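Need a sequence for this fold. Nothing fancy.
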């Protein structure tokens, strides 16, 4: 099995505290929404283990609170915030599919 790794710069630059809140809280809230949907689906369809999504929701909520505190401090001090948001995707490629993989 081969692996393909790609990086994507999603967010980059200096933002006001309110812009930072909008960008980051939108992302975090969407991830929380995703995990809540996963919990509902797993519970209703499979009756399975939802601990992973429950743990991630808690982690995301804690991150959100820490980010909120940082944003408030930056706002109160008239500062901007630099965001460097890169997503790294590792795609595992099976040998039989290697010829059709994008590079």
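Here you go.
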């Amino acid at each position: 099995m081969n692996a393909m790794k790609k990086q994507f710069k999603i967010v980059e630059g200096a933002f006001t505290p309110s812009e930072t809140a909008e960008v980051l809280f939108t992302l975090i809230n969407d991830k929380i929404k995703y995990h809540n949907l996963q919990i509902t689906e797993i519970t209703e369809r499979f009756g399975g283990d939802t601990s992973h999504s429950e743990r991630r929701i808690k982690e995301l909520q804690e991150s959100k609170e820490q980010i909120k505190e940082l944003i408030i401090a930056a706002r109160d001090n008239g500062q901007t915030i630099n965001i460097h948001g890169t997503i790294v995707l590792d795609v595992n490629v099976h040998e039989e599919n290697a010829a059709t993989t994008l590079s």
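For context: The longest helix spans residues 17-46.
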